[in-house]
Amino acid sequence: MSDSAFHYVEGVLHTEGVSAASLAEQFGTPLYVYSRDALTRAYHAYADACAGRKAAVHVAVKANSNLAVLNVFARMGAGFDIVSSGEFARVLAAGGRAENTVFSGVGKSAAEMREALEAGVKCFNVESIPELHALNEVAKSLGRKAPVSLRVNPDVDAKTHPYISTGLKSNKFGVAFADARATYAQAHAMPNLEVVGIGCHIGSQITEISPYLDAIDKLLELVEQIESDGMSIRHVDVGGGLGITYDDETPPDIGDFVKTLLDHIEKRGHGQREVYFEPGRSLVGNAGVLLTHIEYLKPGEEKNFAIVDAAMNDLARPAMYEAFHRIVPVVKRDAQAHNYDIVGPVCESGDWLGRDRELAVEPGDLLVICSAGAYGFVTSSNYNTRARAAEVIVDGDRARLVREREEVKQLFAGESILPD
Ligand code: LLP
Questions:
Q1: Quick one: three-class SS letters along 237-286?
Q2: Which function does this protein serve (predicted)?
Q3: pLDDT at 293 exceeding the cut of 80
Q4: In contact, 289 and 371? CB cutoff 8 Å
Q5: What is the pLDDT of residue 170?
Q6: 325 lines ligand 1 (CB under 6 A)
Q7: CB neighbourhood size of 72 (10 A)
Q8: What is the atom index within ligand 1 of the atom nearest the CA of 204?
Q9: 1 pLDDT higher than 50
Q10: What is the whole-number distance in angstroms between the Cα of residue 203 and the centre of ligand 1?
Q11: 386: Cβ below 6 Å to ligand 1?
């Protein structure tokens, strides 16, 4: 396994000092398991490379919004990147601060803007002219000025999956590069907005640095024009998107990535500006796994199936993106391996977690779906009226339940039948 927080001890998979088998016994399956040490190390890789530079890290809450996970980052001084008032509430409940929070997203409602502005968020990342007008109105009604950064679409190819590539012209995200200067002029003319920055987010699971450098070059070119129009750009937000190893990808090391971007911006003569990073996946992806157990082994004419108790409602990425997650047994068996598709109990052919995997397993064995810390639990659903999994953080030789397993009765507690 790629991350030392998850390793075998005498043939049994452990997270830090705790065996996955004991976690399954104590908390049941399916179970999301995170390593505090892995979360801490990933955050430090960003923070250490930013130390002494004009740079800030805003954790993208969408990747993993468990309160305890956010709290681990908040304790280390992280800022946050949110896309809804729900995420904002989580940040505040987890000990994060409004003044270290940036508000992204293409469809903020007036109510969300009002709440965030009243609380004093650091910046609104605005994506369209109508949104600028809406924010200006909200700020006016509060007698305030809203700090604004435009998310510009630099039209670069991040060379990633089309569903998670966001910097191309054809995406719904950001202000088109060609319109950006005029949009800034409009923002500048609105009395209740204060232009403070510029940003982009070109996609996710990006494994090369060059698309970032291309995007930064385009942003800096714009910054010079915008400043000659009388605005002052204090920060440049380079977004998130750094990839992780799911299979055989070799993304840049976090520290190298941060340093390369900061050095590049400095060399281009913009070292006086603060640089914001918005990482999600690279902080949490390989700090978490999904633990599941095999209900049945079902041999077939063309394929063998290992039917497990986790499903597409627990981890949507394979069904959604045909994403690859490594799958390993918790206890290594000294037996003949067979080829299996790992599937869940949901009534959809798309309900699979892994295909064509060589595994030596028996019914009742535990499996670990690796690299499930990002966009795992947060995209889980109650499809097929399945209660969502519990979440646990391992810290050294202790395991703490940080989200209880849902109970079925909670799932329809807000529903009612017709009176007649
Ligand atoms: N900032 C903005 C504005 C974003 O839209 C995103 C992710 C991030 C930061 C964090 O990106 P990261 O560092 O995690 O790549 N569900 C998909 C990924 C969707 C990413 C959405 N935006 C998946 O499971 O692969």
A1: ECCCCECCCCCCCCCCCHHHHHHHHHHHHHHHHHCCCEEEECCCHHHHHH
A2: Specifically catalyzes the decarboxylation of meso-diaminopimelate (meso-DAP) to L-lysine.
A3: yes
A4: yes
A5: 64
A6: no
A7: 25
A8: 15
A9: no
A10: 7
A11: no
Does residue 347 have an active-site annotation?
yes
- How many residues comprise the chain? 420
Residue in this structure with the two tokens 């409940």, named with its chain if needed: 93
Mean pLDDT, residues 146-166 taken together:
81
* Residue 210 backbone phi and psi in degrees, to 5: -55, -40
Supply 397's token pair.
């030789």
pLDDT value at position 173?
84
pLDDT in tens, 167-199: 566 667 899 999 999 999 999 999 999 999 999
281 assigned binding-site residue: yes
Residue type at 145 in one-letter notation: K
Report residue 212 as tokens. Answer: 């970032």
Q: Which domains does the chain have, with CATH numbers?
A: 6-35+285-411 (2.40.37.10), 105-277 (3.20.20.10)
Quick count: other Cβ atoms within 10 Å of Cβ 220? 18
Q: What is the DSSP letter of 197?
A: E
Per-residue pLDDT for 26 more than 60?
yes
* Residue 39: predicted pLDDT: 98
- 114 Cβ inside 6 Å of ligand 1: no
**What's CA 100's distance to the chain center, in Å?**
18
pTM of the model: 0.96
Whose CA is closest to 226, among 171, 156, 277, 152?
152
Helix, strand, coil percentages, rounded to 5, for the chain: 35, 25, 40
Mean pLDDT of the region 390-399: 98
pLDDT value of residue 195: 98
pLDDT above 60 for 96: yes
DSSP state of 387: P
